[in-house]
């Protein structure tokens, strides 16, 4: 009989132990959930953890304090008190939040914990608030809340102290207090991780906001500078044109200087225009005026404009019509810009007596415009650079062809705004083929 009651007692104890262990695990899981939740505000995280610890582990009180390096203070972040044993007096809570400890106050036990990075225990609340409260006041609070013991743990992340957590356990409940102790040992680590997470998020969020502001400033600056530059540049171009075309007796040397000045002004105007377009695209201010367009007509326009350049270089320049009408819904000016650049590039980079040919194909609901040249081709390692801003593959070459290195970047952005794409196939020395893929408009015919 004696033996049976002993076994029953053992079983009962084990059962309680298990229940206690279970509590610890579910509290740690709860804190995990808080860390992984969408809440990123440090104040809310600290409060949720303190509340979870008090409710889940049966502590009397949990108090989280964080270091403010700038103010050299240890500041209360969250306080949670067990409502069933402590009468919550809002003036007491307010008083606790106003207790900021100076980091140089080495007499204070919390500061000592942080400095030594070691657990401290005390049965005197006065040790926590020396120099802020009188011993008498501390005793009173302690008595009225029946707080017997305080465990103070440093909160440390990557060897840097970030604050402290103070846990006030309930009176000892033999023999399972050992698990509460186990939990208290693990709590500071999870709390540190949670707080660190929130701090990092806060930093990233602030940096992100700053970057967005800077980006906006940059866009505004580029836009303003481009507008301001355009007017004087256009005036210079017009006067140079007048001098070159209306004065007959210009010294040939001076004429060649003026020619260079005129070309460079042209280059600057193009650069300013491209920068303005890019600033609009990147700040999503580029608006498209969509209309149904006859694609062959559009390409023919670019062909006619560029024919003179091809003829100058004795390039065989061909445009093969497509047997059917190809209608795309697009912005006339912007689409023209794409073809002028891609066909313009083919002529610009193909040496004399080469060939440039354009033809169309269709595939499902899209049209593909092929622009093939017999130029120098593009090496594989340079392909990725092609569509980046200011990418000029001829960098460093002598007699390089003029250009801003922005044409393909802009073309790609515009094509993508039309829900299309640009592809390139090339082999160094064997010419290049650019293909522009655009969705065909839904027409009723
Ligand atoms: N058909 C081509 N054959 C060989 N290289 C090309 C061809 N098209 C483009 N490239 C290379 O890609 C670079 C980028 O072209 P992109 O059109 O963006 O700029 P760009 O022609 O130099 O200047 P712009 O802004 O005046 O168009 C060119 O500088 C050139 O080195
Ligand atoms: Mg170009």
TrEMBL record:
Pfam families: HATPase_c, HisKA. This is histidine kinase. PROSITE patterns: HIS_KIN. Residues 224-442 form the Histidine kinase domain. Its EC number is 2.7.13.3. The keyword Membrane applies. Keywords: Kinase, Membrane, Phosphoprotein, Transferase, Two-component regulatory system.
């Amino acid at each position: 009989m004696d033996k049976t009651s002993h076994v029953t007692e053992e079983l009962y104890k084990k059962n309680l132990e298990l229940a206690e262990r279970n509590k610890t695990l579910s509290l740690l899981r709860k804190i995990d959930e808080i860390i992984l939740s969408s809440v990123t505000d440090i104040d809310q995280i600290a409060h949720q953890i303190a509340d979870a610890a008090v409710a889940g582990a049966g502590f009397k009180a949990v108090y989280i304090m964080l270091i403010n390096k700038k103010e050299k203070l240890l500041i209360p972040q969250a306080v949670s008190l067990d409502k069933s044993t402590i009468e919550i007096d809002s003036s007491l809570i307010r008083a606790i939040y106003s207790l900021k400890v100076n980091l140089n106050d080495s007499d204070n036990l919390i500061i000592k914990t942080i400095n030594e990075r070691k657990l401290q225990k005390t049965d005197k609340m006065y040790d926590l608030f020396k120099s802020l409260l009188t011993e008498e006041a501390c005793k009173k609070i302690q008595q009225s809340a029946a707080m017997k013991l305080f465990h103070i743990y440093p909160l440390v992340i990557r060897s840097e102290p970030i604050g402290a957590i103070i846990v006030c356990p309930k009176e000892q409940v033999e023999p399972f207090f050992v698990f509460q102790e186990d939990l208290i040992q693990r709590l500071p680590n999870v709390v540190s991780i949670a707080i660190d997470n929130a701090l990092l998020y806060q930093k990233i969020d602030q940096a992100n906001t700053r970057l967005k502001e800077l980006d906006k400033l940059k866009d505004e600056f580029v836009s303003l500078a481009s507008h301001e530059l355009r007017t004087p540049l256009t005036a210079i171009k017009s006067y140079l044109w007048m001098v070159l075309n209306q004065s007959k007796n210009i010294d040939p040397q001076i004429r060649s200087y003026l020619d260079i000045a005129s070309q460079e002004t042209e280059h600057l105007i193009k650069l300013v225009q491209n920068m303005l377009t890019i600033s609009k695209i990147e700040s999503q201010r580029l608006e498209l005026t969509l209309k149904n367009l006859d694609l062959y007509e559009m390409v023919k326009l670019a062909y006619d404009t560029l024919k003179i350049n091809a003829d100058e270089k004795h390039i065989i320049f061909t445009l093969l019509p497509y047997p059917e009408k190809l209608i795309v819904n697009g912005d006339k000016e912007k689409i023209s810009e794409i073809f002028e650049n891609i066909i313009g590039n083919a002529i610009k980079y193909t040496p004399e007596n080469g060939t440039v040919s354009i033809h169309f194909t269709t595939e499902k609901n899209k049209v593909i415009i092929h622009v093939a040249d017999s130029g120098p081709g593009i090496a594989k390692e340079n392909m990725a650079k092609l569509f980046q801003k200011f990418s000029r593959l001829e960098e460093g070459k002598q007699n390089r062809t003029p250009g801003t290195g922005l044409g393909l970047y802009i073309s790609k952005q515009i094509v993508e705004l039309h829900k299309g794409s640009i592809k390139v196939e090339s082999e160094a020395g064997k010419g290049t083929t650019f293909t522009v893929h655009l969705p065909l408009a839904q027409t009723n015919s």
